[in-house]
Amino acid sequence: MDRRKSLKILGGSVVGIAGLALVNWKWQITDQLTHQGFFSYQEEKLISSIADTIIPEGLPPQLPNPDAKPIGALSTGTDSYLKKLFEHCYDQDDQADIKNGLDQLNQQANLEFGDDFYNLPKTEREASLMQMANSEDEKQKEFFKLMKSQTITGFTTVKEVMVDYQGYQVAPGFYNGCAEVKSKA
């Protein structure tokens, strides 16, 4: 095989991969700068990481079938549910309390661990949430209770959990008739 041709192909591949990485990085920065929505980009990442900390991805003790995949708050879209719920179903005072709670949680993580909450490992995120749950400040306790209860509600009412794990049926009653119908033959 021609060595020059091989090196050209290999070099082109490296440049292509580096270009794709650069474009992905640029898209992330552009998304952060031009993000539109009720919650800021950072607040959305905080909500997602809180949901993932409360219900991490894993296999439950009883599987509906042997080839079941790990399930968690992020894989079922519970974080999207929380964002839409807080944006559309809560009044402005409650929304302000939620945003304040997210800000306090992130500040607490920065002070205690030196990084944003969503960048922390799972054990440190759990410690931050438990500190908020056991806080003397009632607003922090209420924020934690709200996030925990709505995360559990969002997770347990998603189709994958209800149908596959809880055996939910839309119309659970069945009708098995006992009268035989003779066909006209």
Describe the structure.
- This protein has 185 residues and is mainly alpha-helical.
- Helices cover 63% and strands 0% of the residues.
- Helix 4 packs across helix 5.
- The N and C termini lie far apart (77 Å).
- The mean pLDDT is 85.
The succession of helices and strands, N to C, reads: HHHHHHH
Q: Looking at the chains present, what oligomeric state does this protein adopt?
A: single chain
User: What's the total helix number?
Assistant: 7
The count of β-strands is 0
Helix percent reads 55-70%
Mean pLDDT level: 85
Find the structural class using helix and strand composition. mainly alpha
Separation of the first and last Cα atoms: 77 Å
Q: What is the overall silhouette?
A: flat
Cα Rg:
24 Å
| Percent of residues in β-strands | under 5%
Model regions low in confidence, pLDDT < 50 over at least 5 residues: none
Profile the largest sheet: none
Q: How is this fold's topology laid out?
A:
Elements lengths: L2 H31 L7 H14 L23 H11 L3 H22 L8 H12 L4 H19 L2 H7 L20
Helix pairs in contact: 2-3, 2-5, 3-6, 4-5, 4-6
